[in-house]
Amino acid sequence: MSPLFGPGKAFIGVIHLPPLPGAPRWAGDLNAVLEQAEREARTLEQGGANGIIVENFGDAPFRIGRVEPETVAAMTRAVDRVGRATPLPVGVNMLRSDAISALAVAVAAGARFIRVNVHYGTMAADEGLVTGEAAATLRRRRLLAAEPDVAILADVLVKHAVPLGDVDLGLMARETAYRGLADGLIVTGPVTGLPAESDDVATARRAVPDRLLLVGSGVDAQNAAQFLPHADGAIVGTSLKKDGIITNPIDLERVKATAAAIRGMG
After folding, report:
1. Residue 192 domain-assigned (yes or no)
2. CB within 8 Å of 104: residues ≥ 6 apart
3. Does this model's pTM top 0.90?
4. Which residues form the domain of 238?
């Protein structure tokens, strides 16, 4: 049970936004982006999700550090539009790992949580070295009077990145939770759409039994039973798309099937 997502296993659906203003592939029509976000939010709610996270996924290639002001502005409009379309708790993931901007969007748009890909420690990612800003993020959340209204959900050894040297996943989970003060943890596979190792999920659960624990990639209607005995829920994106292709629209029937599988885990 999660105070944020309600009783039972959490099913958080992902809205992958098309390119936003300033991104290399920006198409020039923000209204089309916002309308797509609203449609997908309603589809997720109708299909049985009990949370939504909005990502600037189309802005690849991503940058290290702060995103541009136009990205923050566009994300704020998108998150606000999603929040007005559904009563579900909405979250923000500002890629690559801009927790400060994500907090700003969350506070302005009334979001309930942020996802931080590297909250504590340093990872070597496709884009370069990504260093967590836990100290700055926690202080900014306090400054914005957003505690406990905006939860911080942090990846442990995030996808599309590798640690610098040998790292014990259980130790990193404990450090992220108890030194980085994350409200919840996310365990993923190596890249978007690929599942985590079920042993990794179990390891994180043993290491941090008192925090929300989510599986952050690769969960679908067929394999939910494999990953969720040790987790409190899942963030699901790719498998909800038509034909399982990440650039396609969200498919209502896939959402319903995934919701049934996750809720079936209790």
Report:
1. no
2. 72, 76, 144
3. yes
4. 10-154+220-263
* Beta strands across the sheet bearing 128-131: 128-131, 122-125, 161-163
Total structural domains within the chain: 1
pLDDT digits (tens, 9 = 90+) for 194-227: 667 888 999 999 999 999 999 998 899 999 988 8
Helix (H, G, I), strand (E, B) or coil at 95: coil
Per DSSP, the three-state class of 225 is helix
The answer to whether position 171 is within a domain reads no
139: number of Cβ within 10 Å:
11
CATH code, domain with 229: 3.20.20
**In the 3-class helix/strand/coil scheme, how is the chain assigned residue by residue?**
CECCCECCCEEEEEEECCCCCCCCCCCCCHHHHHHHHHHHHHHHHHHCCCEEEEECHHHCCCCCCCCCHHHHHHHHHHHHHHHHHCCCCEEEECCCCCHHHHHHHHHHHCCCEEEECCCCCEEEECCEEEECCHHHHHHHHHHCCCCCCCEEEEEECCCCEEECCCCCHHHHHHHHHHHCCCCEEEECCCCCCCCCCHHHHHHHHHHCCCCEEEECCCCCCCCHHHHCCCCCEEEECHHHEHHHCCCCCECHHHHHHHHHHHHCCC
